[in-house]
Batch of 2 targets.
Target 1
Amino acid sequence: MTRKVLVMGEWKEGSLRNVSFEAISAGKTIAEGGEVVGLLLGETVKPLAESLIHFGADRVVIVEDEQLAKYTTDAFSQALMAVIEKENPDAIVMGHTALGKDLSPKIAAKLDTGLISDVTSIEIEGGNVVFTRPIYSGKAFEKKIFTDEKIFVTIRPNNIPSLPKDETRTGDITSLSPEIKDLRTVVKEVVRKTSDGVDLSEAKVIVAGGRGVKSEEGFQVLQQLADVLGGAVGASRGACDAGYCDYSLQIGQTGKVVTPDLYIACGISGAIQHLAGMSNSKVIVAINKDPEANIFKVADYGIVGDLFEVVPLLTEEFKKL
Ligand code: FAD
């Protein structure tokens, strides 16, 4: 069965986030040969539209409005609902990001449809589109199908590979101008807490530190390794609670859920609440002084040793590559 799939792209500071391309790839699978329509909402998004086509969208709809310059549930849901009404897609896909987590339940409620969130893989089995998602903080996976006609999913970043970029692909870019009105909230200002650098939730490599890092200065040692690997620094709640780093870096049940290609856990014991945020990483390396540390149970490679000796050695070796 072919489907028309609407895929919402996401941008940050003038660039499309990788999850947009992964969502297009997810949309292609769901479409089963049908049409994949990219969607961009923002104040000026036209320059980004072609990229969605290069990564697999058949055409792109854009809604440009100054009220969409900064995300608000109100404005984005009005714009998205207008596009859904116009396009009447069989399926809707967006990233399981802060934006997607906020927007998708509201849209699902408005459409009176189901929502499968945090999808990590999609297969076509026996005529059904089967969605896999983690449950119980990543300790198990469930497979779900829609019994409703409309499919609506959010996909976890870094899990569904995007399609190769093809700059020869072409497609229509059409503009829609729905009326966005009676907003109950507007964003006056965004005060950024974290510095520039690789976005933790999209990083391919994460060097994470725990209480074993012992100080804010200790985190500089991890930052140097992350810089050499083009990755981001993350942390356990133990390290955040101790004031070694900002809570925006916290990974785990009450922090960010990440699935990088490489996760290097330094001085982290591996409490269940931490594992909930990183155990689905593709390769896990643990560095810990305690050979009995729980983190070694989920690690692909374990180094029993002092992180302040091991991490600088790794940094030096990776610099040579
Ligand atoms: P510790 O458990 O103290 O471990 C430090 C480790 O460092 C030890 O294994 C030690 O052997 C090692 N070490 C010490 N020095 C060195 C050295 N020089 N070299 C190498 N290794 C060294 N935690 C999270 O991380 N994320 C969450 O989202 C989260 N949510 C929670 C939610 C709830 C409701 C609760 C109750 C707890 C939550 N926690 C969370 C806390 C969690 O239970 C642990 O307390 C926390 O993860 C421990 O952090 P840690 O591993 O850094 O510290």
Note: The first helix runs from residue 18 to 31.
Target 2
Amino acid sequence: LSRMRKGLSRSSGKLGDGIGAIFTKRKLDDAALEELEELLISADLGVSTAAKMTAGLAKERFDKEVDPQEVRAALAEQVAERLEPVAKPLDLDGSRKPHVVLVVGVNGSGKTTTIGKLAKQWADAGHKVHLAAGDTFRAAAVEQLQIWGQRTGAPVTARDTGADAAGLAYDALQQAQREGADVLLVDTAGRLHNKANLMAELQKIVRVLKKLDDSAPHDVLLVLDATIGQNAVQQVQTFKELVNVTGLVVTKLDGSARGGVLVALADRFGLPVHAIGVGESAEDMRPFSARAFARALVG
Ligand code: GDP
């Protein structure tokens, strides 16, 4: 958690200090509420979430003297209440052989790294993991996944650059079924600049997986880079139009993270946040804890 706290400290510093600046010897009046709303927006909580949280605070304490500590605690409580329903680890369904997880997201969001971290976590827990290098556009992505395969002992189905991703996903599932794998993680391309092509590709992958297992994919994880702040909201919207996103993994919360966007995402979409990334190595993935995150964010 300390890494996340450090990562969030830039935004939380801003939020925590900002609350201190607004609420020193001050009544909770309209002007103070307006300043608070702006502060929440600047911390990436988004316009509608900021308005709701400010209204929530006003409802309890309008026209009363408040101190920063009280406001921080009240806001942290509101953040935690919004995040608690979405904080859900990704559970493997043992009856599925394999449990198929399709991983989507724009290039650079941390898809391949997240797959590596999940592979490590599940392999360490004694599960048999298989990987599919479905980002067939980038040789580097395929190589990177193969490295994760070596590190975790998970076999990797890969093909040459430019190969058909759906064909590869089909082969990977067939192979994983033959091996009796517990989980198959499928990497995908993230070329969002060509949305129509990406949609066709993702839908084709889903279609061919269903030929071998009509309940697959069992999870569709969207990987989001927290450092893009409010832009993550649009990214979720876009990917929801392309494919049936079932949950999120939010990465790079160790950097100068703009973690406030998680509150906006929870409020707007209610999608489960299965894990967070706090660094580049295999161990740098954490379950998402609503209370710890709320405290770290509000400071
Ligand atoms: P992809 O293009 O979506 O597959 O993204 P990659 O997995 O290749 O990640 C892009 C870059 O972000 C790489 O340099 C990763 O090491 C880095 N990265 C991924 N997750 C995290 C994280 O949680 N924290 C940090 N600091 N870097 C990360």
Note: The two ends are 14 Å apart (CA to CA).
